[in-house]
Design goal:
Layout (H helix, E strand, L loop, with lengths): L5 H15 L18 H6 L2 E2 L5 H21 L2 H6 L24 H17 L1 H12 L1 H23 L8 H29 L8 E4 L5 E4 L1 H33 L2 H12 L1 H8 L14 H11 L8 H8 L26 H17 L2 H8 L5 H6 L2 E2 L11 H23 L6 H29 L19 E4 L4 H25 L5 H21 L9 H27 L2 H5 L8 H12 L1
Parallel strand pairs: 1-3, 4-5
Antiparallel strand pairs: 2-3
Helix pairs in contact: 3-8, 3-9, 3-10, 3-11, 5-8, 5-20, 6-7, 6-8, 6-20, 7-8, 7-10, 8-20, 9-10, 9-17, 9-19, 14-19, 14-20, 15-20, 15-21, 17-19, 18-19, 18-21, 19-20
Family: Belongs to the major facilitator superfamily. Proton-dependent oligopeptide transporter (POT/PTR) (TC 2.A.17) family.
Protein name: Peptide transporter ptr2
Pfam families: PTR2
Length: 595
């Protein structure tokens, strides 16, 4: 193997610069002066992530405050709904030896309501995406979402104040608060994730020489992955501080304080948004592109329908399905007027739909994660907590994430790349299914021993003495640690990677929409979770965790076999240049939206 001289490297770099920005080409202000890799360098050079722009951290602070308020209030929902108001209490506080509670509706009602809340929070992003992409843009939609969520937080406080919490009217106020807060959360979540990643503008691979002399490729896809890693880190810092402080507020003061403090922190959101309003990179609304996508798909599907499902599947998934629908392949005299876009945009739509196909597997994964703040919290209440609030254990999940996210980004992932291991996005998602399944197996084993050691055995959740004090298993509550840490690893592999995949694979004018589809999978999971509510009670909880674990494990295996061919095309999908949708397509979309 011959090694090029330094002068040859400089000459090659100049040629690559000229090929990119030669005569007649326009500089874009983003990639100017960069050196682009040759095909040989794409294969031979190590890839690294770029630095994260400061604007992204500013937006992450907004997300931190919002997640503090979301998790800080919702972490005490299980006790608020399930457990009864302690004798003589006017705030729901249980203090050191008692169990905090308010509504006393039982574990099934608790699991049902919290599952509904999860469903509602993750179906409303579809509305948030539509509003942002079509009318207001992401930043303005986020501002409206903050106002709506703030109203919901105020109603939640009303449901918990002394004088209301003792009466059945608290149930109504609490339910209204869930609906209003969920709407605000959905409008917010669909747009904050794309907005943070849009702060990084580069989209093409380029070569740099490090201080050590090593030439490496800076990969925008890895950079977006890094953006979302630290974005998720901020999420979990907010969740951790919110959950720990609110569980102690609930236990020693009352639910009114556990709902008031998150509301005060939430007020940071409008302040930071206002301060940074002129710093953010924003994508303006482009009108409704979704009707144009449907038209394109319908056009591509012409002549491919069949009453034989196998034949139709083969035709619809054929390699030339989208190729024959490109504008360049249409004769000028028969080309539809609405086809006011280029070939690259067709490729982007194809890529976005493939990403949505990947997301269709996520509802089973979220079934395991959703055990975190309902059934696992209830399980903790049946063990010896030694003065620790039963719902504080769920904080092991964000603690593990805060520790292991930087370790994965700075040590584990770079080490794998140096070793030549391609731990791609789809491989990470598969690993997420596996670790999620392992978390449920751990929980099932713990539940078995809870039943075995509890004085009431298979009635552990309702076991009380003559004075109505809870009787618990002598097992130390910290044996739940394994489940929470395994769930944290599954989030690093599946949840963070899902955010990255949604952003990098979506057309630029459909990023909120594709992100909302990813979030909507959690809503579907919550709906599926309602079917398992009957298992969320004694004596069936071992079955509950066991079924979740088996489902996640089997789904992970099937998932990998279904996407392994797509995994081989990862670089090609990331290298697609940005497509263009003309004004006619946008206007057509607006007209269809009005109809």
């Amino acid at each position: 193997m011959t090694t090029a001289a330094p002068d040859d490297l400089v000459l090659n770099d100049e040629k690559r610069l000229l090929s990119k920005h030669g005569e007649g080409s326009e500089l874009d202000g983003i990639h100017d002066g960069l050196v682009f890799p040759t095909e040989e360098e794409r294969v031979s050079l190590r890839r690294v992530a770029d630095s994260v722009p400061w604007n992204a951290y500013l937006i992450a602070i907004v997300e931190l405050a919002e997640r503090f308020s979301f998790y800080g209030s919702s972490v005490v929902f299980t006790n608020f709904i399930q457990q009864p108001l302690p004798p003589g209490s006017h705030s729901g506080a249980g203090f050191t030896d008692g169990q905090s509670g308010a509504l006393g509706l039982g574990q099934r009602a608790s699991t049902g309501l919290t599952t509904f809340y999860q469903f509602w929070c993750y179906i409303t992003p579809l509305l948030g995406a539509y509003i942002a992409d079509t009318y207001l843009g992401r930043f303005n939609t986020i501002c409206i979402a903050v106002i709506v969520a703030l109203i919901g937080h105020i109603i939640l406080i009303v449901a918990a104040i002394p004088g209301v919490i003792e009466h059945t009217s608290a149930v109504g106020a609490f339910s209204v608060a869930l609906i209003v807060m969920g709407l605000g959360t959905g409008l917010f979540k669909a747009n904050i994730s794309p907005l943070v990643a849009e702060q990084y503008k580069r989209t093409r691979l380029f070569v740099i020489t490090r201080k050590s002399g090593e030439r490496v490729i800076v990969d925008p896809a890895l950079t977006i992955g890094r953006v979302y890693m630290y974005f998720y880190l901020f999420i979990n810092i907010g969740a951790l501080v919110g959950q720990i402080s609110m569980t102690y507020s609930e236990k020693y003061v009352g639910f009114w304080l556990a709902y008031t403090l998150p509301t005060l922190i939430f007020l940071l959101c409008p302040i930071v948004l206002f301060v940074g309003r002129n710093r953010y990179v924003r994508s303006p609304p482009t009108g409704s592109i979704l009707p144009t996508c449907f038209r394109l798909w319908r056009f591509a599907a012409r002549g491919r329908w069949s009453i034989n499902p196998v034949t139709m599947y083969r035709r619809m998934t054929a390699d030339d399905f989208w190729e024959n629908a490109k504008p360049s392949k249409q004769p000028a005299e028969t080309k539809p007027k609405w086809m006011d876009f280029d070939d690259n945009w067709v490729d982007e739509v194809n890529r976005g739909l493939k990403a949505c196909g990947v997301f269709c597997w996520y509802p089973i994964y979220w079934l395991t994660y959703n055990q975190l703040n309902n059934n696992l919290t209830s399980q903790a209440a049946t063990m010896s907590t030694h003065g620790v609030p039963n719902d504080v254990l769920s904080n092991l999940d964000p603690i593990a994430l805060i520790i292991f996210i930087p370790i994965c980004d700075l040590l584990v992932y770079p080490a794998l790349r140096r070793a030549g291991v391609n731990f791609s996005a789809l491989k990470k998602i598969t690993a997420g299914f596996a670790t999620g399944a392992a978390a449920m197996i751990w929980a099932a084993v713990v539940q078995h021993y809870v039943y075995k050691t509890n004085p009431c055995h298979y009635s552990a959740a309702t076991c009380r003495d003559a004075d109505k004090n809870a009787l618990v298993s002598p097992l130390n509550v910290w044996i739940q640690t394994g489940s929470y840490i395994l769930i944290a690893f599954s989030e690093i592999f599946a949840s963070i990677t899902g955010l990255e995949y949604a952003f990098t694979k979506a057309p630029i004018n459909m990023r909120s929409l594709v992100m909302s589809v990813f979030l909507f999978m959690s809503a579907i999971s919550s709906a599926l979770g309602e079917a398992f509510v009957s298992l969320s009670t004694d004596p069936l909880l071992v079955w509950n965790y066991g079924v979740m674990g088996v489902l996640a494990g089997l789904t992970g295996i099937v998932f990998w076999f279904s996407v392994r061919k797509l995994d081989a095309k990862e670089d090609a999908l990331n290298d697609l240049s940005e497509g263009h949708v003309g004004l006619n397509a946008v206007e057509n979309g607006k007209e269809k939206a009005k109809e």
